[in-house]
Structures
1.
Amino acid sequence: MANHQLDLVRVDRERWLKQYYFIRAAFSVAWVVAALAAGASSAAIAGALLVLYPAWDAAANFVDASRSGGLNQNRTQALNVIVSLVTTIAVLIALQTSMNAVLGVFGTWAIMSGLLQLGTAIRRWKSFGAQWAMVLSGGQSALAGGFFVFQATTPMSPTIATVTGYAAVGAVYFLVSAVWLAVSEWRQHRRAQLG
């Protein structure tokens, strides 16, 4: 009986993760489209989008951790919520200085949130599928962040377009994870029907 209840909890959490990854992918795609369509021509829209991105990450991590056993059981995500909220405020402040400062803040955030995402994926690896994509995503985020920090120190003036590739790659990783979990769920359902 206890094992059956644990299986139901695991299945419920895996379904949630599938939905969560689809939602994260959809948001990232919408953000990239908005950044390319409107952000390039309006500094105000670009600024709002740059503030929105880490704020969304904080909210998404909070909801995922809450749905996955709470913040106490998901400390990497709890830290990610704090890091992303601090980054949201830091981006607001950096926007008053320069886009180089914004890119430096974004890069620092990408490093920290990427490493925390990597930690979350490693912790989930034994229990849930598709975590290999989240491990790659977290690692690549940290590397991209390092590149952003370096770019921020150069004389060139970055734009929101500098960050769109990062967001687009994140969308791909979330989509791959969501599809992977959907296919796994379909296979398990087929096996149950046939078996």
2.
Amino acid sequence: MPRLLVLATSALGVLWVVLLGGLLPDVVASHFDLSGRADGHLPRPVFVALMAALVGGVPLLTWWLQQRAIDSGRPRIPNAEFWLSAAQRQATGEWLRFHAAVFAIATTVFLAALHALVVVAHRGPRVELPGGLFWTMLLAYLAFVGVWALRLQRRFGRS
């Protein structure tokens, strides 16, 4: 089930990028300075293709790499001898697979939301990234990553 959710979220993320990409001008502000002002531009087809590749590819790649580590029996977890013993291996693998899927889905959502912010930035008279919203999203994603890593450590830090 996690595999299906990861693939579906990725496909929906790519579709989101393509659909919203149609709302962008021919030349897209693709990079912004710390204050939210555009300081880099790309042609729309290039920008949309890059964003689709990022939204669809980065989360899938991280998920796939985690799956490979789990399948090989060599995930990098604390106390691996205990957690990968015959008695614990199946439960450990299921836990890791679920949390790898959660990470991939959250990353897809974050990247797709960033794309939406770029679209919003182009809606006003000046191309400017909504700074408060960007920083809030970034901090929320970083908080998620921190909690995700702490859960991993707490789960496998003891045996």
3.
Amino acid sequence: MKRKAAGNYKAMKIKFVEAVHEIKSRDIAFVSLTSKKDSEVLVLPEGHKSISLGIGNKKDINRRRFILQSRKIISLAKQNKIRRLVINFSDFDMPHLKISAGEIAETLAINFEMANFEFILYKTPPDDGWGFVDELIIVSSDNEVKRGFRKGGIIGEGVNDCRILANSPGGIMTPRILAKKAIDSAKNTPVKVSILGTKELQKLKMGGVLAVSSGSQEEPKFIVLEYFAAGKEKPIVLIGKGVTFDSGGLNLKPTDSMNGMHTDMSGGASVLSTIMMAAKLKLKKNIVGLIPAVENMPSGSSYRPGDILKTMSGKTIEVLNTDAEGRIILSDALTYAKKYNPKLVVDIATLTGAAMIALGQRASAIFTKSDKLEQQFRDLGEKSGDYVWPLPLWDEYEADIQGTFGDIANTGKTRYGGAITAAMFLYQFAKDYPWVHIDIAPRMTAVDDEFLAKGASGAPVRLLIKLLESF
């Protein structure tokens, strides 16, 4: 018996009509909002189906609930094998949120697309096919609404592209293949891609990247993405941790902790997807993406606890634990960023389990010396749905990472405050420009009740796009 080909997710089609009577097909479901608490799928006399979404009092809906309820629509449709949906946009008018019609449309489109996605690339399709929603029909003649849906669709696809990269198995998404994905993604776009290999990294004296990759047969790749669409304006530099698989190195992780470590390059995936999305949206910005891509593996050539590494900055790192590798490769990337004279540098990394212990799985941790940037990122997190929460970066914490035989130790002196000491480590290489560190370990994978498929959540792509648009 011939095996069915593995599946592949496709984005929803979006169609606009000016009135409900223009819709003739019976193979379709209408979405309605009700003041009930429960939601249900009804079969109407005409043969149409209806998704009745119970939202309670509309005035009690805030931004957070609005995002979850929009995803719930798609979740109900998928459960009931409904492939085509009709949305009357006027039902979603919520003036108490003080959000424009275009922004409501954009938010709906992003979250519809995110909720529809599943990583099925290596799964055999079921006999009755996947339960994805294929088409959205929006009842609206408002051009602002149409633009919002189209833009949101692009962003939603970008988030899902990030999830595909992050979900890909470590044996398939190696540094070399991640670099090739960057090159392929940039074809027919204004994004310039440069890939630095071992020889180039040696010339740059990137001792951090070279050390972490030394235990693997896979050559490290330092991926540089440049999108310049704003003349001589100083660029925003986004740096993404690209550890395509993290075994812990010689400080080998326990089995349970090693599961899921193919997603340790989620920061790099978010940067790649964000840069490509900026190009598709034709943002008038200068943006640089830096992704140090490595495998952290144990072997006879691995770097060791006790090693002293000399970084591109000239500072030395005393290695106390080879499983604290992300900050080591980011140290070289933060130094490389200086060459662009950036107006802002943001690094994104699945850096510490300590951030997850502190915050749970609902928000990423952010660190910065700027109160203004901290507040801006918190506001953008609320608007985008990629929520962030600040942790301190006080000078006193520098004492916790001072090395005995090197300038800086790659772990703190105690087991406490690990997310903070990791951020303070990074700060040693980021003092020459405005800087924000986002520890996305808490948001690496989706939580059950947020109506997203299991696996990578795509954080913080939505926040980064909002940042690029507004900074």
4.
Amino acid sequence: MGAILDENVAGSSPAPGHSRLRRLNINLLYALDALLHSPSLTAAARSIALSQPALSAKLRQLREHFGDELVVYGDKRRLTALGEALLHRVGPVLREVDDTFNLTLDFDPATAEREITITAPEAIELMFVSRIIPDIRAAAPGVQIRMVPFVHGAVQKLFDAGVDVAIVPHAMADPNLGRQPLFRHSLAGLVSRNHPFAERQVGEAEYLGARHAALLDEMEQALFGPYGPNDPRARRHIVARTSLNSMLPLLALGSDLVVTTSNWFAQYNAAILPLKLVDLDFEKPSSELVVQWQLYRSREPVIRWLVDQMARGVDKSTYRHPEFR
């Protein structure tokens, strides 16, 4: 991508402050990104398929442009203060540049060859996304699907990392992004098939008298929101915690432990493992999962198609609880 930014349109004049930018080559962004993230000049050159002398020349251009050394090489490589400030800015800019220059409004699932990047909380990835991927692959055999780790916090950061669509809890959803509701879910218990609670309604007193396995607090509260000190979840006797949703059902398997999780996730695991559901007979929250995307991409056929595939996946899911139809 060697587009030059100093080609002025006939009869036009650059806006104030833009003249320096117009003298730059877009390829310098790739060089800057490599220099800021690679441990050595040699490694940076290799990462973008340049010779070391060629990258050294680009580094001189960058230093002249910024009036700063940016990267200092010696016994120990270090970034200057400006280099540190640029470190996490260049990647999102490059992704926007790539997205702009590779944009096409032509998308035929049957013939398309491209990569689609999705992220979702681990439990949602396990019990929902895993079920829609076969349909996506059947409809679009040339499309590659890349799942990336979900990070709780600002949704925009997920898109800055290159995500096309993200499935997020309602409480985390960004009102400035495109969004479509997918489904609601509530809390349910999950126990080993021989557990006394198996396929029963369990009141608060019995629930509090049991031993429990749970996710780390911040992960558990991410799906359904924070809970106060009087909530049964805050008062239960937790003997095992994990940072993986996929580990939760395994902790219940063959043990006396009770797992409290999404009713969708509980039903999914009860269908594939010797586990049983528990109906929690006390006030419990429900939450909505939504799919989000960059608002400016709302008219892109690939985004509309992907969101539609997810909505279809909800409609056909065998794990959808009648309470939330």
